[in-house]
Amino acid sequence: MLPETLPRPPAIALDEYRARRRALMDALPVGSAVMLPAASLVTRSNDSDYPFRQNSDFHYLTGFPEPDALLLLLPGREAGESVLFCPDKDPQLEAWTGIRIGAEAAVARYGVDQAFANAERDGRLSELLDGRQALYLPLDDAAAVASAEGIRLMLKARARQGARPPEAFADVAPLIHEQRLIKSEAELALMRHAARISAQAHVRAMRVARPGLHEYQLQAELEHEFRWQGGSGPAYGTIVGGGANACVLHYVENAARLEADTLVLIDAGAEFEGYAGDITRTFPVSGRFSEAQRALYDVVLTAQERAVAAVSPGVTLSEIHQGVVRDLTHGLVELGLLAGEVEARIDDASYKRFYLHSTSHWLGLDVHDVGGYRRDGTPRQLVPGMVLTVEPGLYIPDDDDIPADLRGTGIRIEDDVAVTVEGHEVLTATVPKRADEIEALMAKE
Ligand code: GLY
Ligand code: MN
Ligand code: MN
Q1: Separation CA 361–CA 317 (nearest Å)
Q2: What is the CATH number for 337?
């Protein structure tokens, strides 16, 4: 029998894309324009490209899926405020690389006011931007800045004929990123789905795991599920770390054999319609925790559960992290991995030998999603619509002063959590994380 296929949530409606563009235009000073390029294809090696992934900001504002497009936002322009340039229709080329949408269809399908083929871009851009005082573009995109500079020089050269070049370039990214930080209902539906697929993939890996398999075989199980459910693939490099490999935070080799009596840490999430899932689970390769492993696991689990419970409007990520540091340090002292008083070990930062990353990041179109973490110099308060991860961990080095049964053990537990008016919603709740639940799942054939 074929595995179950989860029902897909609806795509983002054209009106929502329109509203996003409107909101960005409304946030600009009068007389400004936005110029935002799509991503380009990148060569992998001779005649083959890396899989195309649209620029997240461009995707957020257009939903347009092709490379080398360009969006202009021209508030107040009567002939149309949102203008898209896109790859030209070219039947010969399309026979090799697939159908292109083309300018005509782009207006109907993506709801922009006007669209032109890229062949018209050079001729039209300077005319469209003539008279705009400030041009907002991504300032970290060297090609975009060079192109804007070219347009400015062209308009300057025509100043005597009355052309007015933009007086300033400004960064559009922070404005878009503030919008992206608060997810709409439609985005949350897509994120729930990305999370659900990711959770199902973790369950699948737990079921299959056993000593003698290799890390890449669990990676294959996870990524099979991502694609089977219509995700585009992993939202970031899948991490499967057996034994001491779990202590390497961005381990991606995934090449080692899984040994009995060790734990395996999996950090993996699907991308669905551009949105990322991001889940970590850690479980025993043979399906049963040793006493020492479970004691350490429960320290991380307690910290993680308490941190998830704390997610609520008004709270800050910094407060959540401080709670995690307290709980983990308390556990490290109880287990004898740190000596002395909990407060003292927090103050002298000795817990950082075992916990060296932060507890949360924003999640959305990017796995480490955009949006400021601070406002006016202080950590910002959570508001409904934000989505974050909660991912404490402990990484016990393979050092002589560590009890032998915990040397080279890494544990992280990570869930995706949306902030709601009432508190929070855990998007990844369908993958077990209590030690007993994991053992029960792994015991089932
Ligand atoms: N997978 C990247 C992270 O958890 O932040
Ligand atoms: Mn994460
Ligand atoms: Mn992760």
Answers
A1: 8
A2: 3.90.230.10
